[in-house]
Structure formats: structure tokens, C-alpha cells
Recover the amino acids of this structure.
């Protein structure tokens, strides 16, 4: 017997379709049922590649006694956070208010009338362990509390709702957007990247990107920002977080040494990391391992993460099966190596060099097995490359030169039952998420510009065209696509990141007009026009006229939410408002239209109290302030742009100028003021640098 979730398009929801719990999706009927029956809602939020979500599905949510009690006393609702990040954001914030911490699975109990949470947690075991109560015990206690302590429930509900509304309004005192505010935020965020936290280790790219911006200033600091940013790049490109055999980055490492990853691969991480490594290279930090990691990630993207129609899949699970007879998948099985396997597969010379270059030993570094982590930067030898190709062949059933596509396993049944030429792969979530695809487009566009690689640009263009051609329904941008069907009205991160991606394509296309094998690609003006069109829709449906900034959800798609939030805190992905405000400044330079600049200023003022009081929470907003304070337009010839576009000028945009005065090679404008025309390359570069660091 399956429940309602069997009809869902979401892989995460379908994973719960055979639970004995009578799950509902988030819908008006479920919410009305809770109201009419006066039953508290048990809201459980997760995502398909979440390890502990999978564990809880197989344990507590599959337990008959728990299901019987749940079905009698609660209305259980499942939400995929990747489908509805707006719902996830609200209830994650409330969980953090209640417990001081958060994570997934996110499990909260809501009042049936206003859907306000009054208790919550993350992973609940079936039986008491790990210092946590058993889930049935929790359900019984919550049911008694709701039935017998109405006064306390109402008081708690009022407190939570008041805190949420106050947080959403951001009623702090407006701060001045001056150089001191930016410098303070830059210092604090660079310190976060420089810090040595015990574990786990996350990429934290919004922080690293802001720190990299600081390398062009001569601010007095206790941090060497260039060294800090270089080290973060090395941690990523050399660490076990990078898949040195198949390419692509895992989500994070469980340790402080960047060795053992939590093995799922998320598209959003890979897009951001590719862009960051390309920016490091363009800033003059040209470590060969950075270029290798970018190239390997693109190969993984083409081989395993690209749909036949051109978009990029969302994620790959951490767990996979060793054999088709196993009942449960094992974490990291697709990626790790026993020492005995390495001895059998490699020649003595290859094994010796692998041991010298990677953290390989008989005892292993992960449950008796080996995660490959590079010991040294630089270029890998031919011997090591040969050894890695052999490991690739074991995993994928063919050599890197011949295995160009590797079809996804869409669920555990496909993984176990299909005939794989190598190892059984982890399950791939094949949905298209506009925001995450946009992050990957931006990464590819930047890498294309930095390395002059037309293939990277073509990949980005194909995906951008898929979104433009398929993600508008009844004139409105849609967040998701399931096998050709668009779904869910786009949210602020979808708009903000797609506008940024289109502007990044505009810049990359100034110098690269051809893709792989000379394929003609759209010109730069095409991408600018599309960015303007998407921005218009973004402004119409999500801009807050009263408060400034962009709401997470459109005004006609937020009736089921407690509050309308405006995203400004960076997490694994950058906050929508930081990205959106930076793009407004870019548009003001390129179109030009000073209404964009006015809106950027309003947005920054709306969040200025947060930037002042908690700059460590919002590096993307600080990057937007950098754009606002140091925006630079470079109008020059195609030949000059080819040189400039690959350099690190983080608050500059280029534009081809056909009618420069005689003897002039470029014009540098600081938003509302233009400098003296530059008649030599030396003078042009000097003016750009002055503009990028001006007071």
C-alpha cells in the first residue's frame, strides 16, 4: 500500500511513498483537514540526498507503531526543501529560535489554525539513543501537551509568531553605507574563512568570494587575504571534498582536515566552486590543481549531470550499494578504495606514486578504506594520471576517454536492478532547479572567460537556453522542471541567480562567440536583453515597495506562509538579496537606467542594520556594497576586452565601444562619472585599478 506521496514528482517525497505514515504533501486540502479535525500538523522537511533524512525514512517513518500513533493524532505533511525553500526557511528559523540549532531532517509540530510551530527537532531515532528520546515517546508527549496545555501552546505560538514578524520586518536603525562599514565586514568575513574550526569543513563560497575581493585593497588587517583565499582554494582542489577520480565536489568534509567528505554532490556547490577557482586563477593565483579541478568538474557535469535536453541535474546521493543483494546502501561506497583493491589494480610504480601523492594507507582514512586526498599542489605526473584512469575504469566500466555519458540511477530500484559496467552508482535527483542551474551557468561562464574555453561557454549557453525556452508558464518564471514539466512559481533565488547568470554570459560572450568545434553562440547583447526582461518580472512580483529588497516569494504565491521573508543571510548558497542588488548595479552600468541604481540603494538601505550588526551573516550583501561603492564600466575594443575579461576586476563590467575617439583605446566610467580617455594600455589598466579601489 502506498500513500499520497506516490503521485509526487519529487524524488524526495516519493522515497516516503511506501511509509505506513499517511503522508500529505503541502497543499490546501492538508491544511484544511488539520483545521477541521483540530489536529496538530507534523511537518517534516528534507531533501533527496540528505543522509539523515534517508536514515529516518528507513527507521521511524517505516515503524508501524509510530505510524499508527501519528495517523491518529496528527496530520503528517512532507515537504521537499528544494521545491519549497520559502517554507523551509520559515520553519528552519523557528527551529533555531526554539533549540538554538537546525539541520535536516527538519521536523516541527504546528498548530492547525495558523501553522505556527510549538515544538521541533531534527533526527529522531525509533528508540532513545544519542541522547535523544525515541520518536513515539516524543509524539505521545506532544499530543498530551497540545491537548492539556492550551494556554501554554497559545503563549508559545504568540511568542514565535511575534519573533518571526519582527525578524521579517528588519526594523533596526538604518546604517550609513560607508567605507568603514564595508571594511569592517570584509575583515570579519575574511576571518571566518581563515579560522580553523574543528569540523566539519564546508566550502562557504560566499565568504571566500568576499575575502577574495579584499585582496585588491590595502586595508590594514590581521589577515593576509590572498593567503587565506589561496588556502581555501587548495583545501577544495586538493582535499577529499574533490573527487579526484571522477571529478566534481562533495558537499563538505566531516573533519577539519578536508579529508573525508559527506559524499553527496550538490549542483549548487559545484557551480560556486568552479566560479571561485576561476576567480582565483584570474587574480593571479594560478595553481595547476585549480585548473585540473575545474576541468574534472566539467567532465563530471557532462558525463553524469546533464539531461539530454540540456539542463543540469540537482544532486547525487551520498549512499550507494556495493551489490544488488544489499538491502541498504552504504555511505561513500561508489567513491572509496580498499588498499587491497589498489594493490590489485595498480602497478608497483603507480601504487608507490599514488601513496606519495595521496593520503593512501593500509589502514585507510575512512572506515578502513581510502578517500583520495592530495598531499601536494602542482601538476600530477603521467604515472599518477594513469593510475587514476584505472580507478575510473573500475568505477565506471570504461576509460575516461570512452565513457562520455553515464546515465543516472533515478532511485534505489534502478540502481540495484540495472546492469552497470562498473560499480553501482549513487542515485541522482534528476530534477532541474533554476537557481542551482544558474549557479552552474555562472561558474561555467566565468571559467570560459578566464581560460578562453568555448566548450565551457557552450555548456552554459545550452542550459540558459533551456531555462529561457521551458521555464515560463502563463508568462511566469517557474523554479523546477521534472522531465519536461515546469513546476512551482520561481522564488527570489531563482530570479536573482538567473539574472546574474545571464549577465555573466553577457560578459563571457564579449570575447567568446564560438563553442566546441566552432559552434556559433548567441551574441552578448542577447543575454543582456534577456537579463533586463527577467529583472522586470522580478521587480514586478517580488520587490517590496514598503521595505525595500526582494521577498522570497511572489505576492500572489505566498498565501500559505506565516510571513513573507526577504532572504539576506548566506548559507550553502548566497542570499538572494545580495546577488540581486549586485546585479542591479551591473544593469545600471550596462543599460544604462538609473532606476536600477536607485533600487540597489534602497535595497542596501533596507538591510544596512543587519550589515552593521551582523556582517558575518551576510557576505553577499557586503559584496553588493562593494559593487555599489566601486562599480566600474570599461568601454573598449574587442581586442582589449579579450585581455581584460580574464583578469580579476570584481566590480567591473566591460562593453564593446565601436566609436572611440581617435587614439583612444578605452573609457573607464565610475557609474556617474567618466575618467579621461585612455590612450595607452598602461593608462587604461591604471584607471581601472584606481576605480576598483577608489574611496
Amino acid at each position: 500500500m502506498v500513500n499520497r506521496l506516490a503521485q509526487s514528482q519529487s524524488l524526495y517525497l516519493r522515497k516516503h511513498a511506501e511509509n505506513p505514515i499517511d503522508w500529505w504533501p503541502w497543499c490546501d486540502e492538508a491544511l484544511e483537514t488539520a483545521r477541521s479535525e483540530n489536529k496538530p500538523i507534523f511537518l517534516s522537511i528534507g531533501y533527496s540526498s540528505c543522509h539523515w533524512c534517508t536514515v529516518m525514512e528507513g527507521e521511524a517513518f517505516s515503524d508501524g507503531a509510530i505510524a499508527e500513533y501519528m495517523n491518529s493524532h496528527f496530520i503528517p505533511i512532507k515537504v521537499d526543501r528544494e521545491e519549497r525553500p520559502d517554507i523551509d526557511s520559515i520553519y528552519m528559523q523557528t527551529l533555531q529560535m526554539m533549540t538554538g540549532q537546525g539541520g535536516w531532517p527538519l521536523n516541527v509540530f504546528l498548530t492547525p489554525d495558523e501553522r505556527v510551530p510549538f515544538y521541533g527537532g531534527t533526527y529522531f531515532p525509533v528508540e532513545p539513543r544519542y541522547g535523544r528520546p525515541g520518536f513515539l515517546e516524543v509524539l505521545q508527549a506532544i499530543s498530551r501537551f497540545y491537548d492539556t496545555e492550551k494556554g501554554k501552546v497559545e503563549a508559545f505560538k504568540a511568542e514565535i509568531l511575534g519573533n518571526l514578524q519582527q525578524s521579517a520586518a528588519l526594523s533596526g536603525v538604518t546604517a550609513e553605507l560607508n567605507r568603514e562599514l564595508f571594511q569592517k565586514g570584509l575583515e570579519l568575513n575574511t576571518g571566518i574563512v581563515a579560522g580553523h574550526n574543528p569540523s566539519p569543513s564546508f566550502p562557504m563560497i560566499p565568504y571566500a568570494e568576499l575575502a577574495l575581493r579584499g585582496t585588491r585593497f590595502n586595508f590594514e588587517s590581521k589577515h593576509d587575504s590572498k593567503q587565506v583565499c589561496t588556502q581555501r582554494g587548495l583545501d577544495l582542489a586538493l582535499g577529499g571534498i574533490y573527487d579526484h577520480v571522477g571529478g566534481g565536489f562533495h558537499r563538505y568534509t566531516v573533519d577539519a582536515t578536508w579529508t573525508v567528505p559527506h559524499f553527496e554532490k550538490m549542483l549548487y556547490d559545484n557551480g560556486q566552486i568552479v566560479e571561485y577557482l576561476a576567480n582565483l586563477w584570474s587574480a593571479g593565483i594560478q595553481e595547476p590543481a585549480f585548473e585540473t579541478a575545474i576541468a574534472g568538474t566539467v567532465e563530471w557535469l557532462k558525463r553524469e549531470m546533464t539531461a539530454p535536453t540540456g539542463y543540469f541535474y540537482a544532486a547525487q546521493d551520498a549512499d550507494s550499494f556495493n551489490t544488488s543483494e544489499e538491502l541498504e546502501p552504504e555511505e561513500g561506497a561508489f567513491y572509496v578504495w580498499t588498499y587491497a583493491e589498489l594493490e590489485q589494480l595498480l602497478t608497483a610504480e603507480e601504487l608507490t606514486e599514488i601513496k606519495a601523492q595521496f593520503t593512501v594507507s593500509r589502514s585507510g582514512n575512512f572506515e578502513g578504506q581510502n578517500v583520495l586526498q592530495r598531499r601536494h599542489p602542482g601538476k600530477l605526473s603521467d604515472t599518477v594520471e594513469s593510475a587514476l584512469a584505472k580507478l575510473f575504469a573500475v568505477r565506471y566500466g570504461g576509460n575516461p576517454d570512452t565513457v562520455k555519458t553515464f546515465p543516472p540511477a533515478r532511485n534505489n530500484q534502478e540502481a540495484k536492478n540495472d546492469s552497470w559496467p562498473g560499480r553501482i552508482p549513487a542515485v541522482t535527483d534528476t530534477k532541474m532547479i533554476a537557481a542551482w542551474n544558474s549557479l552552474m551557468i555562472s561558474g561555467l561562464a566565468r571559467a570560459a572567460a578566464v581560460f578562453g574555453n568555448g566548450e565551457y561557454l557552450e555548456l552554459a549557453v545550452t542550459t540558459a537556453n533551456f531555462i529561457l525556452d521551458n521555464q515560463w508558464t502563463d508568462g511566469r518564471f517557474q523554479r523546477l522542471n521534472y522531465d519536461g514539466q515546469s513546476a512551482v512559481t520561481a522564488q527570489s533565488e531563482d530570479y536573482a541567480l538567473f539574472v546574474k547568470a545571464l549577465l555573466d554570459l553577457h560578459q563571457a560572450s564579449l570575447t567568446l562567440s564560438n563553442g566546441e568545434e566552432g559552434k556559433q553562440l548567441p551574441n552578448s547583447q542577447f543575454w543582456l536583453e534577456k537579463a533586463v526582461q527577467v529583472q522586470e518580472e522580478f521587480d514586478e512580483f517580488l520587490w517590496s515597495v514598503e521595505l525595500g529588497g526582494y521577498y522570497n516569494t511572489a505576492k500572489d504565491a505566498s498565501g500559505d506562509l506565516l510571513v513573507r521573508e526577504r532572504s539576506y543571510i548566506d548559507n550553502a548558497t548566497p542570499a538572494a538579496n545580495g546577488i540581486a542588488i549586485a546585479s542591479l548595479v551591473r544593469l545600471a552600468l550596462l543599460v544604462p537606467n538609473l532606476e536600477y541604481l536607485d533600487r540597489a540603494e534602497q535595497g542596501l538601505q533596507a538591510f544596512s542594520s543587519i550589515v552593521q550588526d551582523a556582517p558575518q551573516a551576510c557576505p553577499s550583501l557586503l559584496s553588493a556594497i562593494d559593487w555599489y561603492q566601486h562599480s566600474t564600466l570599461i568601454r573598449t575594443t574587442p581586442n582589449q576586452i579579450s585581455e581584460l575579461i580574464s583578469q580579476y576586476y570584481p566590480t567591473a563590467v566591460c562593453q564593446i565601444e565601436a566609436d572611440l575617439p581617435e587614439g583612444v583605446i578605452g573609457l573607464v566610467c565610475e557609474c556617474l562619472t567618466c575618467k579621461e580617455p585612455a590612450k595607452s594600455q598602461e593608462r587604461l589598466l591604471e584607471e581601472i585599478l584606481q576605480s576598483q579601489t577608489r574611496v
Notes: Residues 150-169 form the longest helix (20 residues). The first strand starts at residue 24 and ends at 25.
